[in-house]
Amino acid sequence: MLLARRLEEIEPFKVMELMARANELSTLGHDVIHLEVGEPDFATPQPIVDEAKRVLSGGMTKYTDARGTPELRKAISLYYAKRFNVDIETDRIFVTAGASGGLLLLIGLLVNSGENLLLADPGYPCNRNFLSNYEAEGRLVPVSPDDNYQLTAKLVTTWWNEQTRGVLVASPSNPTGSVLSVKELHEIYASVKARDGVLLVDEIYQGVSEKQTNVHTALGIGDDLFVINSFSKFFGMTGWRLGWVVVPKECSPDLEKLAQNLFICPSAIAQHAALSAFSESAMKILEQQRVEFSQRRKFLVPALRELGFKIPKDPEGAFYVYCGLPDEVEDAEDFCARLLETEFVAITPGTDFGFHQAERKVRISFARNLDQLEEAVTRIARALR
Ligand SMILES: Cc1ncc(COP(=O)(O)O)c(C=O)c1O
Predict the structure, then answer these.
(1) What ranges make up the beta strands (E) of the chain?
(2) Which residue's C-alpha comes closest to atom 16 of ligand 1?
């Protein structure tokens, strides 16, 4: 079958393949520990589930406004006001099919074919494939612990070229868990603006943070940048496929046009249920989960260091540790495959997240409970012997 040429530029999302093999091994009866996953192990908070049941019985299952229901957009606006003290008009908020739907919409809105966005390497791998899907490009900028694994204003200046349309950062980052401070965001923003570009900030891991004081939004910096967020991670709603974007007001009519055509609307059931995500009872559960992630991080990071994994800086957010391999291990993909096949521990090779020294890196997720993490560390130690 003759397929579109753009498919040649789009790579598979390796972690999904790895997860499929890990699931296959589970089906065969092996006790697989899933540290490759990018989703919280906690169930969706009960108030959200209860609301979904009510909504379903009430028949609230029809198409909604392409931008999302007015109630949910209002709730998101209130969340920004209450938690971050920023005033976001509901006109600027679009509810989307996860952050993925939001990213696809924003790239469609902003990037012409042949143009590029600067992306950190390592970074979320789908971003460059989203861009390829629009015949644009992710211009990968190698980042290291010296830059806190994030783009900096200086890197933006160095890597900007004729085709660069803007910059997409994620804070906290996947796979490194590094967080951009408000000051660093300001500097990147200024550098992008000086070049008439656009700044997109993916805040999907907002709230999954070591310190609550570290939780901020780029929306406080200016009203002409683009923010992507999601109910997937902090709110524990990965499979519900719900997220949102905030855009400059002048872009809303065009984005609405795109959203109508591409998606008609996000899931109605998920939207109605997500109203409960901001309730006090859900927030209380989510705060407990944040604390538990922090406890897991505190166990896992030193335990991995003890085994020889190189973690120059503790992750500050998200639920991943991005580490250099111990000296005796040569290749990340081989190691991950061996660990899965012999010890039934699934972790993700660095090559899923970019190219910069990726074959010597792995990402280990701690979206699993402490008992499982302890057992995984024992098994990893065995695999290293
Ligand atoms: C940085 C980042 N952005 C976006 C996404 C997409 O998430 P979703 O579409 O589930 O909201 C992910 C998923 O892992 C991610 O890590």
Answers:
(1) 33-34, 93-96, 116-121, 137-142, 164-170, 198-202, 226-230, 243-246, 320-324, 345-346, 348-349, 361-365
(2) 174
Q: Is 204 touching ligand 1 by the criterion CB < 6 Å?
A: yes
Q: Tokens 């560390």 — which residue?
A: 377
Q: Is the CB of 124 under 6 A from ligand 1?
A: yes
> Is 149 near ligand 1, meaning CB less than 6 Å away?
no
Is 376's pLDDT higher than 90? yes
Ligand 1 contacts CB of residue 294 (under 6 A) = no
Residue at which a domain ends, from 278, 305, 329: 278
DSSP 39: S
- For ligand 1, say whether the CB of 267 is within 6 Å of any of its atoms: no
Rounded Cα distance, 237 and 206, in Å = 14
Domain with 343, as residue range(s), is 5-44+281-384
Q: How wide is the angle at C-alpha 108 spanned by C-alphas 246 and 269, nearest 5°?
A: 55
Q: Domain check: are 82 and 133 in the same one?
A: yes
What average pLDDT does the structure give for the chain?
Answer: 95
* Ligand 1 midpoint to CA 100 (Å): 6
Q: Identify whether residues 162 and 78 lie together within a single domain.
A: yes
- The tokens describing 265, both together, are 């609307």
Q: Which atom of ligand 1 is nearest to the CA of 99?
A: 11
Q: Is the CB of 15 under 6 A from ligand 1?
A: no
Question: Does 76 share its domain with 119?
Answer: yes
> Residues 317, 352: one domain?
yes
Q: What CATH number does the domain containing 33 carry?
A: 3.90.1150.10
134-156 confidence digits (pLDDT tens): 999 999 999 999 999 999 999 99
* Ligand 1 neighbour 238 (Cβ under 6 A): yes
- Within 10 angstroms of residue 202's Cβ, the number of other Cβ atoms is 28
Q: Is the dihedral of CA 103, 150, 235, 12 positive or negative?
A: positive
Same domain, 265 and 288: no
Side-chain-side CA neighbours of residue 149 (13 Å): 29
Residue of 14, 105, 126, 267 with the most ligand 1 atoms within 8 Å of its CB, for mutation:
126
Query: For the segment 232-285, what is each residue's pLDDT rounded down to a tens digit?
Result: 999 999 999 999 999 999 999 999 999 999 999 999 999 999 999 999 999 999
Whose alpha carbon is nearest atom 13 of ligand 1?
38
